[in-house]
Amino acid sequence: RKEFVDLYVNYIFNESVRKPYEDFMQGFLRGCPARSWKMFLPVELQVLLLGHATYDWRLLQQNVIYRNYQESHQTIKNFWTVFFRLPEEKKKKFLAFLSGSDRIPALGLEYLRFTIEDPRWENPDNFLPRVSTCSYILSLPR
Questions:
Q1: I want to staple 133 with a disulfide (CB 3.0 to 4.6 A). Which of 28, 100, 105, 124 is the partner?
Q2: Quick check: is 33 in a domain?
């Protein structure tokens, strides 16, 4: 019985998926050559592929560029007051809304610059904030 179970488990987990796995691995290695990975430690590779998981939200605030706003404008003050009162998970969701990912890019927050702009809509109360994730622009109505 033990031999049967061992052979069956080997078949299910190894033999039955060998061809699809080899096809996947061949395609994956075309885009991400494994030889290049050898220069990274596992932790460094994880950061490179997934981004950082430690957040310094004040640094994010320092790197903002304001367009059609001054940092002293009440809308901006209100935004940051509300942002810093959010629980950590909601801040991460904002980061995902802004950038498409809830992780910090590999270079770190000091290199993540985003823009908060006033879209200058005629009736700002009729609009919600919008974001351009490719260019990290948050359109924040007054």
A1: 100
A2: yes
Q: What is the pTM of this model?
A: 0.67
53, 104 Cβ separation under 8 angstroms: yes
CB atoms within 10 A of CB 94: 17
Q: Is position 134 annotated as part of the catalytic site?
A: yes
- Do 71 and 107 fall within a single domain? yes
**CA 106 to CA 125: how far, in whole Å?**
37
CA 24 from centre of chain: 25
8 Å CB contact between 19 and 72: no
Candidate list 34, 39, 41, 134, residue with the active-site label = 134
Cβ atoms of 57 and 103 closer than 8 Å: no
pLDDT, tens digit, 9 for 90 and up, residues 26-84 = 888 887 777 777 788 888 887 777 777 778 889 889 989 999 999 999 999 999 999 99
